[in-house]
Amino acid sequence: MKRFLTVDDIGDLGQALKEAAEVKKTPYAWDTLGKNKTITLIFFNSSLRTRLSTQKAAMNLGMNVIVLDVNKDGWQLETEFGVVMDGDKPEHLREAVPVIGRYCDIIGVRSFASFEDKKADYEEEILNQFINFAGVPIISMESATRHPLQAFADLFTIEEFKNKERPKVVLTWAPHPRALPQAVPNSFVEWMKVADVDLVVTHPKGYELSPEFTDGVTVEYDQKKAFEDADFIYAKNWASYEQYGQLLSQDKSWTVDEEKMSLTNDARFMHCLPVRRNMIVTDGVIDSENSIVIDEAANRVVSAQVVIKRMLEALK
Ligand SMILES: CCC[C@H](NC(=O)CCC(=O)O)C(=O)O
Ligand SMILES: NC(=O)OP(=O)(O)O
């Protein structure tokens, strides 16, 4: 495994979920696999869960871990090609990436969508500089268009908590004070489309995700109708794709509340976190016994450990 970005990179989903269950059951069974191997985790944006869970997963495998906050450590990095570097950025990514690649065996990268250039974001220009120039395997820790470690953990969590063969899973947009990336919903849809679930996506008009992800997916503009008989409710905010990066609505009628959850089949509530309480979801719902957001976050160690384990096995 040279990169982990899309659902295709994990291979057979059934096998990956079996491996995840095994890793969760015996997390230290491969604690020498990473001996004398180093993973560098590079953050262009903030993180709690990804930062801690990916370090934990690497340590479970016996690896050395380096964490780099680009905006705090090292030099300000220029990411544009062809510019005259006479500003406040002393180093280009084109040099920094292969240099970092010489100090480690695997790199994890978090670099959110810029919302400045839709084409550059959706062509994954930043992440591809790592994939093309680092010389070591690359794990997306949320890129401009995807968050695969999150989606893998989300699917594994649904597998753990489902009480029927093909559960109804609803991805619902919810209001937020800022314009957030489409990466989490994109990956959620990408993974759920190939999983054994009945997926419905619900959001206000104008918040359609890129067709590359939602082609063939049921989109329901009536949130309450979408919630009917649902087994899992996955809430997330995202900015408009069509009017790229725009905050078209903060319509609080889309906040996930107890009344809407009563329309479901006693559904579990999920969110990748961090979550804006009483914007995305009411306190009553996220504090209820139906909420599995903490178990979902705990499973981020599992998804990261499966991916890193496979990369280490390929390095042997
Ligand atoms: C895992 C989620 C990371 C990120 N979330 C945020 O940036 C939330 C920031 C905020 O609530 O102000 C996102 O929506 O992609
Ligand atoms: N869900 C998730 O990736 O959380 P962080 O942004 O805190 O890493």
UniProtKB/TrEMBL annotation:
Keywords: Amino-acid biosynthesis, Arginine biosynthesis, Transferase
UniProt catalytic activity: N(2)-succinyl-L-ornithine + carbamoyl phosphate = N(2)-succinyl-L-citrulline + phosphate + H(+)
Residue ranges constituting the Aspartate/ornithine carbamoyltransferase carbamoyl-P binding domain according to the UniProt record: 3-160
Annotated pathway: Amino-acid biosynthesis; L-arginine biosynthesis
Binding site for N(2)-succinyl-L-ornithine: 142, 176, 236, 276
Top EC class for this record: transferase
GO MF terms held by the record: N-acetylornithine carbamoyltransferase activity
Origin superkingdom: Bacteria
The keyword Kinase is assigned to this record: no
Transferase as UniProt keyword: yes
Annotated EC: 2.1.3.11
Residues of the Aspartate/ornithine carbamoyltransferase Asp/Orn-binding domain: 184-307
Chain sites annotated for binding carbamoyl phosphate: 47-50, 75, 110, 147-150, 272-273, 300
InterPro entries listed in its UniProt record: ArgF'-like, Asp/Orn_carbamoyltranf_P-bd, Asp/Orn_carbamoylTrfase, Asp/Orn_carbamoylTrfase_sf, Asp_carbamoyltransf_Asp/Orn-bd
Subunit structure and binding partners: Homotrimer.
Known function: Catalyzes the transfer of the carbamoyl group from carbamoyl phosphate to the delta-amino group of N(2)-succinyl-L-ornithine to produce N(2)-succinyl-L-citrulline. Is essential for arginine biosynthesis.
Family to which the UniProt record says this protein belongs: Belongs to the aspartate/ornithine carbamoyltransferase superfamily. SOTCase family.
Name recorded for this polypeptide: N-succinylornithine carbamoyltransferase
Organism: Carboxylicivirga mesophila
Gene, per the UniProt record: argF'
